[in-house]
Structures are given as structure tokens and as C-alpha cells.
Amino acid sequence: MAIHFRDASLAPLQQVTVSAPDGAVIGVIGEDASGARQLLRIATGLEPAHSGEVRFDVPARYLGPVDAPQFSSVSTLAIDHTLSNCDALIRARAFTEIDRLRRTGATILIASHDLDMLHQIADEIWWVHDGRLYAKGDSREVTARYLQHIAARHRAWGESVSAPLSPALRRGDGRAEIVSIETLGANAQPTGVLRSGEPMFVRITVRFQSVVDNPVIGMMIRTRIGSEVYGTNTELERYPLGAMQPGQVVRVTYSFPCQLCPQEYTITAASHDPNGVWHDWVEDALAFAVSDSRYTAGVANLRAEVTAERL
Question: Residue 282 belongs to what domain range?
């Protein structure tokens, strides 16, 4: 009851050669439009391959995203995101039915974005990318590579996103104006997404409207629920700015490793006198995200190394 693909193509799927053995559950992952859906459709004969060869045992069934789960006896079953919107009870029943089919020798392909689910039930993972079988094998090894790819794509996308100031609250006496706040990554380019662990820069540009003697310019990073993560200013860093004249623009850049866990954050920035009188304070004015290839709990990503010994 195996499924065999030999140079099988159905756009965007291109010349895939791979086999799924009898009694196997294969998880299929990939971005939308990668070709994963076409792989499942030709695996059950729902659509013929435009070229190449696909061999599978009948009866075969394809379940699409809006189909009701049906697990009556089949030799080949393709589940295309069918379980995504199912409640916990239906999913639990589905896992039992999938295991029953596996024991009868059926071959099952499951396309899903739920990697935890695939780790639970799949014997092997196939990663389809840009129409080709990019990787296959152990579920955790393949999904780790896939998540690294997604994190890199997310990071690259962040450079295409412009983020104007959008403060939740703004206050001050108007002697200075915070013109912009930017987050920059290791390549010194502005980005709305940073990789956990990469060098990070926070750049604050301030225009002075009046004479100000030795202003203090600072920043605070918070989580999306408002917990303070890290803050500093030019006074704490012992970097005096001196006297500022009307119309003068100053750009202050803070640099540090982005040792943050993957989630969303905001930046608050301020210009004020050494005694704390604000010129301009912009609360939660810029949002940015941190991406990583794996989940890390908390806020600070300390990148622990683990050892163990039996005593």
C-alpha cells in the first residue's frame, strides 16, 4: 500500500521522486503555495500529475481543509489541513483512527502547519519548498530546519516593513521632539523583526526646538503586556550630549545583543533634563518582533547550555 512518486509534477510541484512505505504516516510541511497540496492531490488520484508517475493503492481518499474527517477503510489517505479547525475531541478521535489505519497497512499523508501535532503522529516529515521536496526524515530534525527557514524569512520580511511612530501617550514641554525611533539588525538596516541573538541597534533621532543644556535621551523596551525589559539613557551610560541649540538634530544609537525571547515588544523613548523634566516622551511608540527557530519561555534568552551526570 505504498505511494511512489517518480519525477511527478503538478504546478507548482516539480519533478518529485519519493516513496512512502506501507503503514506509514507522513507529515507534509511547507509554506502556502509550496506544492504540498498538489502532492496530496496527485497521491490519491484527485488530480493527475502533468508529468511523471504516481503509484498508489486504492481505495484512496483525499480530505480537504473543509471536509469532515472520514476514516473508513482505505489504502491511501491524504489529509490536507482537515484537522486544523477541529475541536480537541474530534482531533483525539482522528488520531485513534489514523493509528488504526496505519496498523492495517494504509499509507497516510498529513499536510499541516501544526508541527506539534505532526511530531505526535507522523513517522516521517517531508518538507516541500518551492515545488520541490526540500528535505525528508526524522520529524524533529526536519521541522527544526524548517523553523530556521521560517525565522530567516520572517527576519528578511521585517526589513520591508516601515514603522512610523505611533505612541500610546505623548507628553513634554516641547523643547525637543523625538522625530524617529528605529530598530536595526546586524546588517545595520532598519527592520521590524530581529533574530534572537543577533546584534541590535536602537536609533533615536531628536530635534531641539529651544536651547537645552545637556539633555538626556533614553529608551525603554517593554513586552506587549507592558512589562519592563530593559532601559537605559545617555546619563546612565555616561555619555553627556552638551548644549543643544534650536533646530539642532541629534541621533543617539544604542547597541547590544538581542538576547530576547521570540515575541512582540515596544520601545518608549524620551528626551529630558537631568532632573527629569520631559521635553518629549513617546510611550510605546515603536513595535518590533523577535523571531527564533524555537520556542523559549520568558523574556531574556540566556541561551543556556545543558549538561547532566548520573550520580
Answer: 169-291
Q: How many CA atoms lie within 13 A of 57 on its CB side?
A: 16
Given a contact cutoff of 8 angstroms between Cβ atoms, the answer to whether 219 and 267 are in contact is: yes
Q: How far apart are CA 142 and CA 115, in angstroms?
A: 10
Sheet holding 176-184, edge to edge: 176-184, 199-208, 249-257
| Cα distances (Å, whole numbers) of residue 72 to 28, 158, 222 | 22, 46, 52
For residues 138 and 180, state if they share a domain: no
- What type of residue sits at position 258? C
Rounded CA-CA distance 301/262 in Å is 8
Q: How many structural domains does the chain have?
A: 2
The pTM score is 0.85
Burial class of residue 209 in the structure, from the number of CB atoms within 10 Å of its CB (0-12 exposed, 13-18 middle, 19+ buried): middle
**All three cell numbers of 91:** 482531533
Interval 168-211: pLDDT, tens: 999 999 999 999 999 999 999 999 999 999 999 999 999 999 99
Rounded-to-integer distance, Cα 155 and Cα 161, Å: 11
List, in order, residues 6 or more apart from 112 with CB less than 8 Å away. 27, 28, 29, 79, 81, 83, 84, 118
